[in-house]
Design brief:
- The chain folds into two domains: about 5-45, no CATH class; about 45-115, Beta Barrel (Elongation Factor Tu (Ef-tu), domain 3).
- It has two helices and seven strands; from the N terminus they run ααβββββββ.
- It has helices at about 5-15, 25-45, and strands at about 45-55, 60, 70-75, 85, 90, 95-100, 110-115.
- The strands form two sheets. Strands 1-7-3-4 form a four-stranded antiparallel beta sheet, with no helix packed on it. It has a three-stranded antiparallel beta sheet with strand order 2-6-5, with no helix packed on it.
- The longest helix is centred in the first third of the chain and has 18 residues, at about 25-45.
- It is rod-shaped, with a radius of gyration of 20 Å.
- It starts with a helix and ends in a 14-residue tail after the last strand.
Amino acid sequence: MNLAAMIALVRKDLHDEDSGNYRWTDAELTRHIGRAVGEVSESLPLPCRAILSTTSGSRDLDISGLTGRVMVEAVEYPIGDSPPSYQQFSIWGDTLTIVSGSEADGSNAYIYYGRLHTLDAGGNPPRPV
């Protein structure tokens, strides 16, 4: 559903369908819809997986590029183990520190995280990385 369709449904629920005499502007409804989407995101974030490169000899990963990040659920490092090797981690600001397993060797890690839901004019949420 796109934003225009959502605004139309909200107008119907509010009995505000007289286009010549709206009680609520599109901007006001858009703001309220955005707030609701934000609250849903806090309770049920959009699940995503990012691939980040590690730095040889370091346990820290820069997660500042995880746009709209609400939480981090898991870190898989190294990638490709069967069963997967999930590591314990801590987060301070935009730095994720892997606290278990061996030191990084420069290979990739999967970061499983939740991000904010978004809704653009076309109704398209961003695709997970």
